[in-house]
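note to self: dont lose this again. the chain is below, predicted strucutre after it. 127 aa total, dont forget to put it in the shared folder this time
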Amino acid sequence: MRREERLNKPQQYASVYSKGSSWASNLLVMKALPNGLTLSRYGFSVSKRVGNAVIRNRMKRLLREILRTMPLIPAWDIVFIVRPAAATADYASLKKAVEGLLSKASLLEAGEEHGLLDEVRAGSGSE
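---
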């Protein structure tokens, strides 16, 4: 994740928290707000209730990797709030939760069915 794709100032987080729309799953809460820029920026909120520092950092690494592979619409500030249940979740279930939240919010690029693309790339398509 490039530096310009990060939310790193408290004012940026506060703006998304106060003015943004919210979507929730059992593992994550996502808040999003249009930013008027040419790129989307991301932030992660992982409280101490999720686990110790090792677990919290692992959650952030997994989410960064998942977002790196997602085809997203630009011009949004997005904050992912990790719920304690996510601490025991694996990569696939986290990816499914993120994909579900982004599709609920209509933030995935049109015409991109990400799960289907992954199957075709893996060679498991019907041939």
